[in-house]
Amino acid sequence: MKQKKKKILQGGRGRCGCVSSCRETRCSVRMFSVLKERVGQILLPGDEFCCGPQDTLPLTDSGKPERLVAGPGLRLSGDRLLVSRSGVLRHKEPNKFWIESQQRRYVPAKGETVIGVVTAKAGDVFKVDFGGSEPASLSYLAFDGATKRNRPNVQVGDLVFAQFIVANKDMEPELVCIDGSGRANGMGVFGAGGLLIKVSLGLVRRLLVPNSELRADLQQLFPCELVVGMNGRVWVRAGTVQQTLILANLLQSCDTMTAPQRQQLFRNVWTRLHGAGLTEDPKDQLVLCGGPEPMDFLVFV
Amino acid sequence: MAAGFKTAEPLEYHRSFLKENCRPDGRELSEFRTTTLNIGSISTADGSALVKMGNTTIICGIKAELTNPTADAPGKGYIVPNVDLPPLCSSRFRPGPPGEQAQAASQFIADVIESSDLIKAEDLCVDRGKLCWVLYCDLMCLDYDGNILDACLIALLAALRNTQLPEVGINKETCLPEVDLEKRQKLHIHKHPVGASFCVFDDSILIVDPTDEEENLATAHLTVVTDEDGRLCSVHKPGGTPLSGEKLQECINRATARQREIHKLIDKVLDSVKTTQ
Amino acid sequence: MTSFACDKHRFHLESGVMEVSPSTVSLIREFGCEQTLLSRPDGSASFVQGDTSVMAGVYGPAEVKVSKEIYDRATLEVLVHPKVGLPGVRERSQEQCLRETCEASLLLSLHPRSSLTLILQVLHDDGSLLSCCLNAACMALMDAGLSMGRLFCGVTCAISTDGEIITDPTAAQEKESRALMTFAIDSKERRVMMSSTKGSFSVHELQQCIAVSQKASEKIFQFYRDSVRRRYSKNL
C-alpha cells in the first residue's frame, strides 16, 4: 500500500457507468441558454425549467435540439427540468449541468472511491461501513493478487480504500479493491499510522478537482500523504504526529472559510511552524491518492 | 382474477374503479358508508354510544367523576377524551402504550371539543373553586376499517347526548358533597360538531369516508368538522399532497350536508330510545 | 445569523391586491435562520420568528430498523421535543402533521429501505410554534441535501375577537384570539399542504386566512432563497 500511494492517481475510472442521477435529454436551444444564464446561481428545490416544444425559437436559430445531461440535484420529468436540491448550478462544457450542494451524508454512486472500515467478516465477504445507509460488501477475492488459497490479510477494524462496483438504490452496495484490469491501482488495506477525519462532501470534491487551489495551498506547508474518499473521509499522514494533527485540523476548518481566509490561516501556520522548527523544506510533493477527477459522475455513456 | 389484481396492484385496482366514478365497495365518490348508531349500550356508564360506519366500529363510554377544579380555571369542569386503538381492531396495532395514531386522534377529539363549545365547561362546575365534574370519554375502536375520526366524533356526540349526571348538593355541616343518584339531569349540549373525512387519490381525486385500504393508498387526508350553524370547528389536514381552495370548498360543502344527516340521525335514535322506555 | 424584517408598508400595498379586507393586519415578525450550525447531524437549521425559536437536525439516509423498513421508500421519523418536560400527546399530533408534510415534499422513493430522522427542539415558544417548526424542518431538510420535489413553509393566522386576521401571532395574541389556524403552503402552486385549526370560524374567514397565508408564504420563500444564498456565498 505504501509504495502504491506514492504516485498521484488520476483518472482511474475514466468512463464510469452512468449513475442513476444522471439523465440525458434533448432540449430546446432556448432552455439551454436559460440554464446557462443561471449557472453559478443558487437554486432551490421546486424550481423548474420548461423545455416544451412550445418554446418559440427565433428564425435565425438553427432550432436544432441540443442534448442535455442532468446530474445530481436535477431531475427530468416529461419536458421539464426540476431542481430537487438546494445549491449552486454548475455547468461543464458542452452540455452537463448539476447542482453543487454541501452534503454530509454520503449516498454511494458506482465507480466512486471511498474509505471504509471493515466491520465484520461474513463468510466470503467483508462488511464495510462507508457512512452510507447500509454496509457495503467486499469480497475477499476482490483484492490484488487474491485467490481462493491466498486470502488477503484483512481484519475487522481495518481501513480500506475501495471502489463501488455496484451502487444503486435497490441493491446492496458492493466494493472492490481492484480496477478493471485486476490491479490494486492504489486501493487496498491501509498501513499503520495516519489519521482518519471526516469532512463535508463539498470539501472532498474541492480537494479532488484538477488543479485544486486547496491542494496547492496544502502543498506549501509540509510533505504529507492524503487519501481522499468521495464519502467525505480523508486519511492524512505527515512526518510527525504533530504535523498530522495540524493538517487534520486545517482540513476540517477549511469547510467554512473563503479562499483568502484560508490562505491567511495557512500563512500563519507556516510561519509558526518555521518559528518552532517543526518542518523541513517542502521539497517532497504532496502525495495524493484518491478518487480521480471529481464530477466524473456526470459522464454519460 | 380480480382478487389477484387487487393484491398485486392495489393502487391500479382502485384507480380503475375511480376512473368510472365509483369505488370497489360500490359507493360513489361522495357517498358515506351506512352509519348505524346505538345509544345507551353500556348500562354501567353514565353515557354511551356505539357507532358503525361500514365495518368501522367505535364504542364510546362516558364516566363522570367529581374532582377539584384546576387552579387556573376554578369555575370550570373538564373533559378528558381518550382514543384507544387496541390490537383487537386491526393487525397493525401492537399491544403496549398508545401509538402515534391513537395519540393524534385523542388530541384531535380534544381540540374539537374545545373549539366547538360542545359543552360549556362552566356547566360542569358544581361549586366554584371546590368541586366540578370531570368527564372521561373513552373511545375504543372495535373494528378498524378507516375513517375513525368521523366515527369517534359521532360516538362522542351521541354518548354525551345520552349522559345524565346525578344531582350533587353540598352538605353544609360536613362540607362534603352528597350525590343523589335518583335525580339525574341531562347534559346541555350547545353545538353538534360532526366530521367528514376525505382522501385525496393521485393528487386530484377526492373521495369521502375512506376505508382502511383507501386510506393507505391515498396521498393526503383531510377532516372537516362543522356545526349546525355552518361554522367550521376544525379543518385538519396533517400534511400530504397540496389541495386547492376550490377542492377545499367542495369538502366543506359536503361536510355541512353530512352534519345535518348525522344530527338528524342522533335525534332520531334518541327519540326511539325514549319511546321504548 | 441572517435576519429579515418584513416592512409593514409594502406588505399592506400587496395585501390590497388579493381581496383581503383592509382590517387585516398582515405583519410577520422579524425572522432569522441559520443553517449547518450543528456538527453531528447531516443537516441542521435553527429558525427564529420573533421570540419563537426552533432548532432542527436531520440524520439520514441512514440504516433503518428492520421493523420500520419500507421496501420502496425511506422511513421518515419526526421527533418534537418541547422546551420543558417530556413530549406528550400534543407533540405527537404535531409530529404527525410535520411528518406527513415532509413526506409529501421529499422524494423518499430515491432512498428505499433507509431511515430519515428529523428532530425538532423547541428553544422558546412565543406563538406560531407549529409554523416555526415547519420552517425549521424545511431548512434542515434542504441543508441535509435531501432530494425534494417542492418546498413548504408554515404560516399561522389568528382571528382576533373583532374579526381581524393577525399573521404570525405572538403567544399573547394567540391567547386572545377566537380562532387559530396554521397552514403549510407549498412552493409550487401555493396550495395548502397541511392545515391545523383551533376555535370555530366561518368558511369565508378560512378562505381569507388561506389567502393571507399564501401571500405571506411568498415572503418566506424569498427569505429561504436569501438565506441559502448567504450559506453558499463562500462557494459562488
TrEMBL record, chain A:
Single GO biological process annotation from the record: exonucleolytic trimming to generate mature 3'-end of 5.8S rRNA from tricistronic rRNA transcript (SSU-rRNA, 5.8S rRNA, LSU-rRNA)
Gene3D superfamilies (UniProt xref): 2.40.50.100, K Homology domain, type 1, Nucleic acid-binding proteins
Q: What GO MF terms are annotated?
A: RNA binding
List the CDD domains: KH-I_Rrp40, S1_Rrp40
Ranges where the Exosome complex exonuclease Rrp40 N-terminal domain occurs? 71-105
Entry keyword annotation includes Nucleus: yes
Keywords attached to this Swiss-Prot or TrEMBL record, sorted alphabetically, are: Cytoplasm, Exosome, Nucleus, RNA-binding, rRNA processing
Q: Which InterPro entries match?
A: Exosome_RNA_bind1/RRP40/RRP4, KH_dom_type_1, KH_dom_type_1_sf, NA-bd_OB-fold, RRP40_KH-I, Rrp40_N_euk, Rrp40_S1
Q: Which domain of life is it from?
A: Eukaryota
Cellular component, GO, one term: cytoplasmic exosome (RNase complex)
Q: Does the keyword Oxidoreductase apply?
A: no
Annotated compartments = Cytoplasm; Nucleus, Nucleolus
Annotated membrane-spanning segments are none
Question: What is the protein's major site of localization?
Answer: cytoplasm
The chain positions of domain K Homology read: 194-242
Concerning PANTHER family, the annotation shows:
EXOSOME COMPLEX COMPONENT RRP40, PNAS-3 RELATED
Q: Return the similarity comment.
A: Belongs to the RRP40 family.
State the name under which the record lists this protein: Exosome complex component RRP40
Q: Species name for this entry?
A: Fundulus heteroclitus
Automatic annotation (TrEMBL), chain B:
Major subcellular site: cytoplasm
Any GO BP annotation: U4 snRNA 3'-end processing
The protein's matches in Pfam families, at most eight in alphabetical order, are given as: RNase_PH, RNase_PH_C
| The keyword Acetylation is annotated on this UniProt entry | yes
Q: Signal peptide location in the record?
A: none
Which keywords does this chain's UniProt record carry? Acetylation, Cytoplasm, Exosome, Nucleus, RNA-binding, rRNA processing
The UniProt family comment states: Belongs to the RNase PH family.
What is the recorded name of this protein?
Exosome complex component RRP43
Its source organism is: Fundulus heteroclitus
From TrEMBL, chain C:
Which is one Gene Ontology cellular component term of this protein?
A: cytoplasmic exosome (RNase complex)
Location in the cell:
Cytoplasm; Nucleus, Nucleolus
Claim: Ion transport is one of the keywords in the record: no
What is the first-listed, main subcellular location in coarse terms? cytoplasm
GO BP terms: namely:
nuclear mRNA surveillance; poly(A)-dependent snoRNA 3'-end processing; rRNA catabolic process; rRNA processing; U4 snRNA 3'-end processing
Matching entries from Gene3D superfamilies are given as:
GHMP Kinase, N-terminal domain (3.30.230.70)
What highest taxon heads this organism's lineage? Eukaryota
Keyword Phosphoprotein tagged: yes
Residues in domain Exoribonuclease phosphorolytic? 28-146, 152-215
Alphabetic keyword roster: Cytoplasm, DNA-binding, Exosome, Nucleus, Phosphoprotein, rRNA processing
Membrane-spanning intervals of the chain:
none
* Any one GO molecular-function label of the UniProt entry: DNA binding
So what family is this one in?
Answer: Belongs to the RNase PH family.
Note the subunit structure: Homodimer. Component of the RNA exosome core complex (Exo-9), composed of EXOSC1, EXOSC2, EXOSC3, EXOSC4, EXOSC5, EXOSC6, EXOSC7, EXOSC8 and EXOSC9; within the complex interacts with EXOSC3, EXOSC8, and EXOSC9. The catalytically inactive RNA exosome core complex (Exo-9) associates with the catalytic subunit EXOSC10/RRP6. Exo-9 may associate with DIS3 to form the nucleolar exosome complex, or DIS3L to form the cytoplasmic exosome complex.
Q: What is this protein called?
A: Exosome complex component RRP46
Native species of this protein?
A: Fundulus heteroclitus (Killifish)
